[in-house]
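In response to reviewer comment 3 from the previous cycle, which asked for concrete evidence that the modeling workflow produces usable outputs, we include below a single protein chain processed end to end. The sequence was submitted unchanged, and the resulting structure tokens are shown without manual editing.
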Amino acid sequence: MKQRKAKRQAGKSKPNSTANRSSTKPGQASRRDVIGLVRNWGIVAALAAGGGWYLVDEVTATISEQDLTKIGNGIPTIVQIHDPQCSRCIALQKETRKALKAFGRDELQYVVANIRTEKGRALARANRVGHVTLLLFDSEGKRRQILQGPSHRDYLEMMFRKHVDVSSSS
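The workflow returned the following structure tokens.
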């Protein structure tokens, strides 16, 4: 008797299996599955597009920064003598980029002379400087100042502002 009662109670607690069956055939995705799949792929596509945009922007900026022919093109120029494997050079580059945010593109430009390239080494030799150095050129391409060693962005911004003011008055 107890066994029958236990079976009845167990049967009551079991959900109705026919009520929970989906109306799709085996191997066929439900509408909910399709919507979830579309949402997930949409998120992946958005992340990939954002990452791609960031990478393209970074590569374009890096290529533009390597163009040493910008020196003397009518805009005062900051040239960093840079070794991409030097942690102090990388720190200086980050601080320089932060300081440059206070200036417009037509006000001051930034160029990187990579000492691992022949052109970068030649520029460093011509100015008798090593890496972790910033060379400040006026709009005509004449070197006006040398800043050596790592510096904080506030100091760099102040020095760049002085450089731009002197370059625009001459």
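Residues 32-65 form one domain. We consider this sufficient to address the reviewer's concern, and the full set will be provided in the supplementary archive.
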